[in-house]
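The following block was generated as part of the benchmark described in Methods. Ligand: D-serine.
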Amino acid sequence: MSYLSTFDPEISEALKAELTRQREGLEMIPSENFVSAAVLEALGSIATNKYAEGVPGKRYYGGCQEIDKIEDLAIARAKQLFGAEHVNVQPLSGAPANLAAYSALLSPGDTILGMDLSHGGHLTHGHPVTFMSHIWQFIRYKTTPDGLIDYDQMAALANEHKPKLILVGYSAYSREIDYARVKEIAQSVGAYTMADIAHIAGLIAAGEMNNPVSHFDLVTTTTHKTLRGPRGGMILCKKEHKKAVDKAVFPGLQGGPHENVIAAKAVAFMEALQPDFKNYARQIKANAKMLEEELRKRDFRLMFGGTDNHLLLIDITAKGTTGAQAEKALDLAGITVNKNAIPDDPRPPLDPSGIRLGTPALTTRGMKEEEMRQIADWIDRAITHNSDEKMLVSIKEEVRSLTQQFPLYTELSS
Ligand code: DSN
């Protein structure tokens, strides 16, 4: 960072302060993680200088020999990780990957059946505030009162609306997904299938959750959540969709791929192929399960009946507070979570009824069940005393001393 601190002290100082924040706090936003120093190095590399529109071996620019090697490695490793027939590693992130996936298989005006946002879906799965919702007609299924995906409702809606695509994969849903059942429903109405595995990609790669890749037409993901790579996206698909997917990404929606990010993706995929990544994924789940148990003991109202993955969605109004108040109190206590809607939430999106929390980043730091017990206690104390500033500051001190036992980025100067 010496060049940066000399040339641009303002940015340098902000980055240093952010490093301190990441080191001293408990990162519990389930979609966040800490990449390795090797991933950071690739991300900050000279590959950012290169234009390489097209795909390896078929570029619109000269000088792509090394870039082709990098992108080919990223593709080969991603195929191996997920058992995919084809992978496009160029999507800039999850939302562009989803847009490209829809446009690869559908025509404007076609119908997509996806999960309601408040039941755990994602904005890009058809929320009316997105531009995509003007291009395609989205129908939404929900979860049952027990908190499981309502496959019967999915089947009934599929029958009624004859969608061209059925979509699963969620950003706030904490249970396993029955891909074979979804495939069956899709086949009964001649629909394509797509899974957005952004949140759980690392767990799937490690064999810790069901893998949709062999059942489904398209699978999209980000690379920066449980997969622990750089911020980015990718699309995995059957060979028969290769051409359509590649064309949809470029020239359909994107220009030059970010090859430094693709290099960092390749490094992260290599990391995920190591035997140790399996232990990491297992521990993410074990930590989430321990948090579930400890929070349940303290009368937290957990949505969807608990967790099978890395996250928990909690109706925090049952504790006499709101999502925004809880997020703020926990922030002051050094615990970062995000406010989140609960199913059919009567409250507004900027101050919903829930909070969402997860264990991938804590697990990367090496924290285990014992730390989860302690963290559940801090969460409870912070929520119960959310307007007691002294209490929140004292929790923050305790949090800081725990984080010192789990050093982060020792390779980087402070
Ligand atoms: N924003 C991501 C998340 O937090 O889940 C999803 O895109």
